[in-house]
Specification:
- The protein is α/β, with parallel strands linked by helices.
- Helix content is 32%, strand content 22%.
- It contains 19 helices and 30 strands.
- The protein has a seven-stranded mixed β-sheet, sandwiched between helices.
- Strand 16, helix 11 and strand 17 form a beta-alpha-beta unit.
- The longest helix has 18 residues.
- The structure holds 5'-O-[(S)-ethoxy(hydroxy)phosphoryl]adenosine.
């Protein structure tokens, strides 16, 4: 854990944008005074504040009497004696409110075919899948792995798990068989829900085949059933007694299924994410606290109203797709666009075309997508956003990585037409929902700054001993008080939870985000400066350097040693740069290219294509200290193409630096 030097623009050099006056008037949180009043309320009566929100926004089967239980800190509990059901809150409640005929999801397929489903229909479908799972013996507490692309079925399957108290773990469809196997193994899942294929960018890609491969790798013996959604219709092998078509089982089930009322602390899902060491960790979220934050931020930050069409472009395989597709907007009764495809198919105007076609009013995407679409519009003026009717937009959001001020400005001017506030939402898989973000009808915006914490979130910037640093100084981002949607534990590894998020070095009572931050000296606005641990962020996807290193080294016939670092990249934010020592001589020319390709393909098989290193450099060795530690800071400088100016007096083999630097 170290504080990296600041490579960011200090917020106060940039212009401030006020939220438009007509927006402020009708926003959920209207004006800075309203924001400050909420902060004040939380400061004066922290538990009362959260209890009030939980009563206002969630339907409880049995009301809670306890709010925060800190007796097993840092294993905090919220609303623990209350019971509820997440799917009831997302679906039944909307039908009861008279929204049964309202469109819940507008599904736009890769090929442009549109399917709509109302709240009443989504509830019926969810109940049928829930009953189908029950008929297979799945019940409360069982884990279900969902390996599927963006689809109504995927969302309904998540809701169906919640309905019966089963714990879903969605695995992103881009992960390899090996990664899928590791997650199935770690969760001990009994059931896998998948599809025959996924359709993306006009291509048909396997899902079911990968599930078969994952299960064949061993360690997944708890899986006795696989339910398969028919998407492509192309043939896939089905194993007798284990595999069934979901529709064949679900379509004949009753459309009613009594929700399983669970305690607020009952795990709603596990979602695997990368840390600085070891295998990805299963982040465990609760039902009550998590759902509260999902619905609260959908209201405060996305300001969702009855007539909005919300589009979050994330995949349900990531936390953003959980909180801001599968749960939050549904719990508010919003209409959402769900998109199966990719931003560049059939051309790079697809996002803008989708917004125009479906009259999207609130749009939430990642800086990496924005940057790649800026480039696309520069090279092909036909896909410039000015050719599309984007007048339906009223609010824009950004998530996943820091947004650079130039991309912010383009988003504001060219997509928002200068009328739409931008919410730059900082949060993490572990935080469950937004932590630091503008409120669109209140907070003056500064490009590149996620501005201020939500009411009830006590964020701070501290030094390595846990002492708050003055505004203007870089430090570690922490949260001082537990909040309802926070991670409960790492599945099966409570010790790792404590070490990762509540380290003793900070006193054991501060949540350590793993990001660096600095506050503006005048306004106190937060700017995130990037991870302070060995976690990379490539196109908004989180990966551990150690994971990629292990994948490289597992190519044991070729690789002796590997070290992975990030370097900045104009489009993807960061790019993966690997330094590799082979078991045989250092290759050159075409031979180096050939081996680099073998290694990239190997990483794609071990983790998934998203983890393929962009640069691979070969050396006779790696820069090491006399005690044998790899000096990553030197590798980072080389990866950036910078001259090594750091102290190299402890370096065992200084000549290696020149070799790695010249080897491009
Ligand atoms: C980064 C995604 C700056 C950060 C929701 C964090 C951001 C990691 C922002 C979590 C933002 C996310 N500004 N950085 N608005 N949003 N990050 O778990 O480094 O996939 O720790 O959750 O993404 O990634 P995760």
């Amino acid at each position: 854990m170290s504080v990296s030097p600041a490579h960011h623009a200090h917020a106060h050099h940039l212009p401030t944008y006020q939220p438009p006056a007509d927006f402020v008037g009708r926003a959920a949180v209207s004006g800075m005074a309203a924001y400050q009043a909420l902060c004040q309320q939380a400061a004066e009566d922290y538990e009362g504040f959260w209890a009030g929100q939980a009563r206002r926004l969630l339907s409880w089967h049995k009301p809670f009497s306890q709010v925060l239980d800190a007796s097993h800190a840092p294993f905090y509990q919220w609303f623990a004696d209350g019971t509820l059901n997440a799917s009831f809150n997302c679906l039944d409640r909307q039908v009861e409110r008279g929204l049964g005929d309202k469109t819940a999801l507008i599904f736009e397929a890769d090929d442009g075919v549109v399917t709509r489903i109302t709240y009443a229909q989504l509830l019926a479908k969810t109940c049928q899948i829930a009953n189908a799972m029950k008929s297979l013996g799945i019940s409360k507490g069982d884990r279900v792995v969902i390996y599927i692309a963006m689809s109504i079925d995927g969302i309904a399957a998540m809701q169906a798990c919640a309905r019966i108290g089963a714990v879903h773990s969605v695995v992103f469809g881009g992960f390899s068989a090996q990664s899928l196997r590791d997650r199935i193994h770690d969760t001990g899942a009994k059931l896998v829900i998948t599809a025959d294929h996924q359709l993306r960018g006009g291509k048909q890609l396997p899902l079911k085949d990968i599930v078969d491969e994952a299960l064949a790798l061993g360690g997944c013996e708890a899986v006795t059933q696989v339910l398969v959604v028919r998407r492509s219709g192309a043939p896939v092998p089905m194993t007798d007694g284990r595999d069934r078509w979901l529709a064949e089982l679900a379509d004949s089930q009753p459309t009613v299924c009594e929700p399983e009322w669970v305690g607020a602390e009952h795990p709603l899902f596990l979602l695997y994410t990368s840390g600085s060491t070891g295998k990805p960790k299963g982040v465990q979220h609760s039902t009550g606290g998590y759902l509260l934050h999902a619905v609260l931020t959908s209201q405060w930050v996305f300001d969702l109203k009855d007539d909005d069409v919300f589009w979050c472009t994330a995949d349900i395989g990531w936390i953003t797709g959980h909180t801001y597709i599968a749960y939050g907007p549904l719990a508010l009764g919003a209409t959402q666009l769900v998109f199966e495809g990719v931003p560049t198919y059939p051309d790079a105007g697809r996002f803008w075309q989708n917004i125009a076609r479906h009259r999207v009013s609130v749009f939430y995407t990642a800086p990496t997508a924005i940057r790649s679409l800026i480039k696309a519009a520069e090279t092909d003026p036909a896909v410039d956003p000015s050719h599309y009717d984007l007048s339906s937009l009223r609010l824009l959001g950004s998530v996943g990585e820091p947004i650079n001020p130039a991309a912010w400005q383009w988003y504001y001017d060219h997509i928002g037409g200068g009328r739409c506030p931008i919410v730059d939402t900082f949060w993490q898989t572990e935080t469950g929902g937004h932590l630091i973000t503008p409120l669109p009808g209140a907070t003056p915006m500064v490009p590149g700054s996620c501005t201020l914490p939500l009411p009830g979130i006590e964020a701070a910037v501290v030094d390595e001993q846990g002492h708050e640093v003055p505004w203007g100084q870089d430090g570690l981002l922490v949260v001082k008080k537990p909040w309802p949607a926070m991670i409960r534990t790492i599945w099966g590894d409570p010790e790792r939870f404590k070490k990762s998020y509540y380290p003793d070095s900070l006193g054991g009572r501060l949540y350590l985000a793993g990001d660096g931050a600095v506050r503006d000296p005048q306004t106190g606005y937060f700017t995130i400066t990037g991870r302070t641990d060995d976690v990379l962020n490539v196109s908004g996807h989180r990966m551990g350097t150690m994971e990629i290193e292990s994948a490289l080294v597992s190519c044991s016939e070729l690789v002796a040693e590997a070290a992975v670092v990030a370097r900045p990249d104009d489009t993807t934010g960061e790019a993966i740069c690997a330094f590799v020592v082979l078991k045989h001589a250092r290759p050159a020319g075409d031979e180096a290219k050939r081996i680099a390709k073998i290694l990239r393909d190997h990483v794609a098989r071990e983790i998934g294509p998203i983890a393929k290193p962009k640069d691979i450099r070969f050396g006779d060795n790696l820069p090491k200290t006399r005690s044998g530690k790899i000096m990553r800071r030197l590798l980072r400088a080389i990866a950036r193409g910078e001259a090594v100016t750091q102290d190299i007096s402890t370096l065992e083999n200084p000549a290696i630096l020149d070799q790695l630097a010249e080897n491009h």
